[in-house]
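Bumping with the actual sequence this time:
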Amino acid sequence: MAYTRKEVCRLLKIENRKLRIWERQQLIPKLDQYRFADLLALKRVARLRAEKVHPRRIRMALDALRSYLKESPLLEQDVQVYKDGRRVHIQIGKQKLEPGSGQLLFDFAEEEINKLLRLPATHQHSTDIADRVRNKLEADRWFEHGLALEQTGAPLEQIIEAYQKAVDLDPRSAGALVNLGTVFFNGHAWADAETQYKKALEVDPNYALAHFNLGNLYDEQGDAPAARHHYQEALRLQPNYADAHYNLALLYQELRDVMGAVRHWRVYLKLDSTSPWAQIARRELKKLEAGTVLSGSRPSMSKLELLNSEKA
């Protein structure tokens, strides 16, 4: 069954004006008719905006969810998206999906965990499965512990230890590898950060966030060709990756590629028109269009610095 925009507004008690705003912010697609799954997505957006969640955080969560549901669309009705403090959480059945990394986390009740682990020990194969389940569960706990430590501003040593334990228990934990790399990056341990990001891409070659972070790393080190490659890879995998458009616009601006910078500033502003970064993007775009930007110039505060200052 399909619903018109007017019916959607009536059913969900949403003004058409809000639908247009959310469309501009890339929180929802622009549609003339809506399916039931679209109504579910609209309800999530409406609830999160009512709870004052920033559009960028909502977009990050929904992008991760849409990417996952491409592989398992039948799970759509078993999804919960909710706010907890400043973070947005996604629950899919008995698993959590971490918005920033796209990593699935087990979230079974203790009784269900025990059932999983109560496998016959007489067969080596069953024992191996039980061991993998235990390691995955424990790795997820350490990963979530690392996220919590970051959120509370704990010492770096504790954060690194948490993510490292997650990786030791589950070497395919791409989310933990990327987060570990970012901790090293923020501490200017460039080689360690590069190692972790590359390990994440070995685990998941289609991990847009790992490409984006490698772009930041190479940009910081002055390796413009490598930075551009990884930003472009992030956008190939996730065309609406607003942060990648922003950083690529900065990079093109520094390389004196005015057309490239203008193109990515414009795309960025379509994806994000209201944040503090949008104000900077609008200002830089105006300078470029007026031909007043000095060669090799950059805004006084980079997106990376803004991201770090705003980090949850």
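The tokens above came from a reply further down the thread. The two ends are 40 Å apart (CA to CA).
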